[in-house]
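Hi Q.,

Before the meeting this afternoon, I wanted you to have the pyridoxal-5'-phosphate prediction in hand. No need to reply - just skim if you have a minute. The sequence and ligand are here:
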Amino acid sequence: MSKTSEIPYKIYLTEEEMPKAWFNVRSAMAKKPAPLLNPATRQPVTLDDLSHVFCRELAKQELDDTTDFIPIPKPILDFYKMYRPSPLVRAYFLEKELGTPAHIYYKFEGNNTSGSHKLNSAIAQAYYAKEEGLTSITTETGAGQWGTALSMACSFFGLKCHVYMVKCSYEQKPHRREVMRTYGAEVTPSPSNTTKVGREILAAHPGTNGSLGCAISEAVETAVSTPNCRYTLGSVLAQVLLHQSIIGLETQAALKKYGIEPDVIIGCAGGGSNLGGLISPFVADKLNGKSNCNIIAVEPASCPSLTRGKYAYDFCDTGRVCPLQKMYTLGHDFIPSASHAGGLRYHGMSATLSELYDQKLMEARAVEQTSVFAAAEQFARVEGILPAPESSHAIRVAIDEALRCKAEGREETILFGLTGTGYFDMVAYEKFNDGSMCDYIPTDADLKASFAKLPQV
Ligand SMILES: *Cc1c(COP(=O)(O)O)cnc(C)c1O
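Predicted structure with the ligand bound:
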């Protein structure tokens, strides 16, 4: 690949070149992810089971593991045009800073007001809800990125949006909350006394700061007890990976324009949606023998579901209302330490990514947050973008891989997903700059206690 000097700093696609269909990576897998199970019957979920909670078209996408390309409806394509294609950037300045012969590219998803890739699925989920004639949707949000993206999507399609925001984030991130309200969402700190499950949790744990699992339970309860209302989720599910495949399809189209093939693909993994979306078309190439690239999932050492978890059926939420999923999990009762990458604090992992990892089509690395913030600052100072703490996990490993290439004198092509910006995470940067940030790694005993509570399936 000696065309280096011809490759622009940013590679864009024209509207014509933009993908017109999402790609369902499960269609390319000979061994599919295990089916979701109904929590009451422990039998594979049916379309009807799922349709009580999710809108029907999304429930269909969730269960479809054979269709390869699913056309993107025109209203969603039109919305995408406002902020897509997202730029694929050649990190010339970072390469120079590291003195590496590697070629580094990143796909930047922070160029929209929500500040992350989550808008790609939020707009699709809001669209299908509107099409079905629903009037409102509910969700939970931890750090706030998903709630923000869904608020934007709902205001675009004229839907009411009710967000249960984990109480400690509600208090610590008032600006995120206000962005959601600016887009018309109702934001309730969770646990709240607006739901039965919320009142029960408050009675049992007065003064609790809340958790994602508890906010999910409140959002689901409100969805199933409100007419014309459904629940939505911003990660983990196969439908979300499907919508996020727009990231990988655009990246592949942009790279192809210049005849570039990645040797290493890196992404941070919380519930797995951005990584799943980025790698989908490349995984298909790997399965068809057309690519030999190395895929690396990066997770926090404080919440190491792939590197230290068990591959087993588990609940997706602490309230045990959602279907059971076979995945790499730390156990639904596992409470990760209060790391600053809120978007990566999930006990499990997408079933699709879990299966790819189990089939050794992907590797995983766990990294500590101080080393993540060191990478974030090194990157920000040369590439300009202030990265989200979640995204910076991918930056850490991209830099490590570039330094390996330098040591080995190899001119490899490294691609990573830069999922978002970190403007709402300045308290975390402040801790890092003050030298008061700590790393916490769960002990084997912590994990053992949590594994003991996995359901017997
Ligand atoms: C939510 C989020 C993540 C993690 O979610 P995935 O579903 O694993 O992609 C990563 N980066 C940012 C900026 C996020 O908001």
